Amino acid sequence: DPMPTSFLGSALRGTFFFIFGLWWSVRYPLKYLRWKANAESQPSHGIQRVEFFEGAVKAFFALAGILVEQFVPAGPHLQLYSPETHSWTDLTHWHYTTIYFFFLLSGIVDVVSHSPLKLPLGLDRLSLSVALFIEVCFHDYSDAALDYHLHSLLAMAIFAGALSALLEVFLRDHVILEIFRTSSFLLQGSWLWQIGFVLSPPWGGPGWDQTDRSNFTFLTMCFCWHYAGALAVLTANSAASRWYVGERGPRGVPAPCTSWDGQE
Amino acid sequence: DPMPTSFLGSALRGTFFFIFGLWWSVRYPLKYLRWKANAESQPSHGIQRVEFFEGAVKAFFALAGILVEQFVPAGPHLQLYSPETHSWTDLTHWHYTTIYFFFLLSGIVDVVSHSPLKLPLGLDRLSLSVALFIEVCFHDYSDAALDYHLHSLLAMAIFAGALSALLEVFLRDHVILEIFRTSSFLLQGSWLWQIGFVLSPPWGGPGWDQTDRSNFTFLTMCFCWHYAGALAVLTANSAASRWYVGERGPRGVPAPCTSWDGQE
Amino acid sequence: DPMPTSFLGSALRGTFFFIFGLWWSVRYPLKYLRWKANAESQPSHGIQRVEFFEGAVKAFFALAGILVEQFVPAGPHLQLYSPETHSWTDLTHWHYTTIYFFFLLSGIVDVVSHSPLKLPLGLDRLSLSVALFIEVCFHDYSDAALDYHLHSLLAMAIFAGALSALLEVFLRDHVILEIFRTSSFLLQGSWLWQIGFVLSPPWGGPGWDQTDRSNFTFLTMCFCWHYAGALAVLTANSAASRWYVGERGPRGVPAPCTSWDGQE
Amino acid sequence: DPMPTSFLGSALRGTFFFIFGLWWSVRYPLKYLRWKANAESQPSHGIQRVEFFEGAVKAFFALAGILVEQFVPAGPHLQLYSPETHSWTDLTHWHYTTIYFFFLLSGIVDVVSHSPLKLPLGLDRLSLSVALFIEVCFHDYSDAALDYHLHSLLAMAIFAGALSALLEVFLRDHVILEIFRTSSFLLQGSWLWQIGFVLSPPWGGPGWDQTDRSNFTFLTMCFCWHYAGALAVLTANSAASRWYVGERGPRGVPAPCTSWDGQE
Q: Could you tell me whether strands B81-82 and B87-88 are parallel, antiparallel, or unpaired per DSSP bridges?
């Protein structure tokens, strides 16, 4: 078994957050440019459709995650208590199921918020914030020192995103908050990959030395470099969006959305 | 004695918070729908009467709680120092008396806020917030590990409610904050029942194993499920309110309040 | 020596904070009533004179405190390093000198803010907040358990006041924040008296048992009762102000200030 | 070697922050006076040029710091892993390189914000805040008790500045926040000098006694005195600015900027 499950799990989770970060790093700069081009315009149907679509993708991924956690061969298959051993089944799978469930909920709230059945504005941000707070508060730490250190750094990235989403409940469409949330998602995504490589390398082997102090210092720096990388990705995507808009003129900004609100 | 006092106490406290959560999960969606229907309208006498009534019920429950804590057979009967043992009487009863006293105060402030003698707006939310902060800061934790874990989770629910009420001092009538406060009350209510079942089951017996680590993980997840349940209750009640209003038309929204403000 | 210095010090500090709390519990309700009576009026010269006077009293008390700490017989007499013992002199006196210095600064800022040389609005609240944060961060805790517990509770009262003053930088003249700050000063004042009685009773004797757990629980409750007492004082003074204004009519509100702004 | 590197490093870092504090303690009072003199005026080109220049200086210092850390004789010369010892090279230099990198980034954002390619307002404050948070979170503490204490106090100064810069994202051009940030930079600067003197005196010798408790108390007070000193510097510079403006009349306020916006 050259590729242990925990690497795969960490990498898949990381990919989910990284893709969302990438998507937002294109979407929010475009939204900001469009808003600057015609400051008086209302949020159009186009944006609402994009958020509807985002919510659906989030809900789909979360549901897929729940099903995978439950029905992998080693999973609990929806069983919580094992009668033969008179104890709980392996609760790690249930743990991730619970966390994914709140992301599923957040996706559903996004979808319903932008359906005709309008919910109060800000409920979508609150539900994202709740999902992230639940991810950060109820993460299960191993007792191993390096594992704990890596997950503490992860917790900082998640917490930054949760706080940013919470502030967006009150300061909706604040471009700085949206950019900061985007960077925190990119950081969380790439850091989950890093955790996978450090704790259970895909080429097998025992992972890094849990007792070497210099590994701690190195990984702390590494976390900062991941953030620098996240900011580089964000900058590159923003610049590309700006260049694309500059090429096509301000009228071109809503282009990727035109297909969505053709009926307007 | 098949049903120990501490289960009863926990369940009664839980019921109090759950009933308030249930009531708000009907009231706030209706208020939001009414506000959307005629955005220009002032908060009417009807709403003020409802808040007056809420305060009176809160004060009544708190006063009842104080009397019960003091005058149950094992209670201190308002005695603080026991001259025969030269020590304090059992301070647990006094502890709950103190906590209930601040809820009594919060109820009285609600009542007075909506009396002709108008207090500054926001004092009712501040007094609720103070009562919740006192509940969370001065809760007496047992030294037993599982007990401590359960009460830490409870503290999170109370703290969320306290913070939400504090923000409402500055952002009054913010529907997201009201919904969040409602969900925190529902969570606190159902979690107090859960604590009762885990630590002192009503069918007797010794409670759960305080040393089994998997119980900790299970109860952490359980807390998340309680929150999911609270959100489900909130959603169901909101949907029912919306359906009820949809049946009767926007004019029907203030219906449950009409009897209150007939003199308008 | 029946009345040890530390009781006297604690009581004098407590009196300072309590007097400020009492004064504000009259001033802020009157200000609120005046503001309600004629909502359009600007903050008059009268109020500015009162704040000038408050700052002067604060600075005077702080300066007196500094002089007393330095020049009591056991004090350091402005000497920091003792050449004969080759060590620092007793730093406790210097510690209080430092804390008082920031209250002196806050008083001076109050005075200068309301002089013709106008400072930016909010600097007076910021300087009060800084003084309180320095009081809370740099308090010297004894290692004795009960001492530590009492000072932790004190720190909560100071912190509440500091946070409230900090918020007032951004939300100036917010009546709820002013009332909350007032209640925190009353609490801090009465709790400093309580600390004096517990740790070094004025009638001599060894203070309370530092190891009895029930003392901890009792004093925690006691802290809540002090807060209830502070709220009672605040309510009584507000009611008295309102009654006084009701007797004299809205024109009567500025009465206590009339003598100050006779030249208006 | 009478002047060990760590003193020099601490002193150079301190000088950087102190110079920025000094510069702001002149700039922000002038800006406030100008704003008071003609409240209706927009932020002119002059101010934007100053911020451009500030960003360039910040970026230059940060880049210089990175190069010095990497290419001093004992530095890693961009090498992260030493193949001969099969371990990481000395990571302290890399640590400072990482911290300086985020200040470099903050400088670049300042420069780009005020270039024709306009970034969203507030991104410059966010990037400064991120740099300070990274400085405070990822500082490497020694295990020695006094060292830890000194760096905890430093962390408070940095954290105050980071929080202030974060608030400025939302409350831009708030004079109180600008003054507070200035005072935190002055404090951080002078405290870095103090740390240098205590831990590695430039005249050689072993540094202060790490085990003497009275040193801890003394240095805590010393930190407060540094803050008092920072406030004194700030007050003196503000007073000098005001006097200078008073001499030249309100028209004189933009004087130091006139050379910058001659083309207006």
A: antiparallel
Phi/psi region, residue B78 (left: phi>0; alpha: psi -120 to 50; beta: rest), is left
Terminal CA-CA length for chain B:
54
pTM, two decimal places: 0.89
> Quick one: how far is CA C156 from the chain centroid?
14
Tell me: the pLDDT tens digits for B212-239? 888 888 899 999 999 999 999 999 999 9
> In angstroms, how far is CA A253 from the centroid of its own chain?
26
C130/C105 Cα distance (integer angstroms): 10
**Nearest C-alpha neighbor of D218 from the set C71, C95, C72, C76:** C95
Residues of chain C found within 8 Å of residue B98, distances taken between Cβ atoms: 221, 224-225
Please enumerate in sequence order all residues whose Cβ is within 8 A of that of B170, keeping only pairs 6 or more positions apart, or say none. B122, C171, C174
ipTM of the modeled complex = 0.87
With b meaning 16 or more CB within 10 Å and e meaning fewer, what string describes D201-217? beeeeebbebeeeebbb
Could you tell me how many CB contacts below 8 A there are between chain B and chain C?
40
Chain A CB within 8 Å of residue B231 CB: yes
The rounded distance, in Å, linking the Cα atoms of A89 and D128 is 48
Q: Where are the beta strands (DSSP E) in chain A?
A: 81-82, 87-88
Per-residue confidence at D191, pLDDT binned at 50, 70, 90? very high
Partner-chain contact C170 D175, CB within 8 Å: no
What is the Cα–Cα distance from C144 to B89, expressed in whole angstroms? 25
* C87 phi, psi to nearest 5 deg: -155, 175
In sequence order, the 6+-apart residues with CB closer than 8 A to the CB of C202 are C2, C3, C4, C7, C11, C196
Exposed, middle or buried, B258 (CB in 10 Å: 0-12/13-18/19+)?
exposed
Interface test with chain D among A164, A217, A219, by most D beta carbons within 10 Å: A217
pLDDT tens by residue, A81-111: 888 877 887 788 898 999 999 999 999 999 9
Nearest to C200 by CA among C51, C9, C20: C9
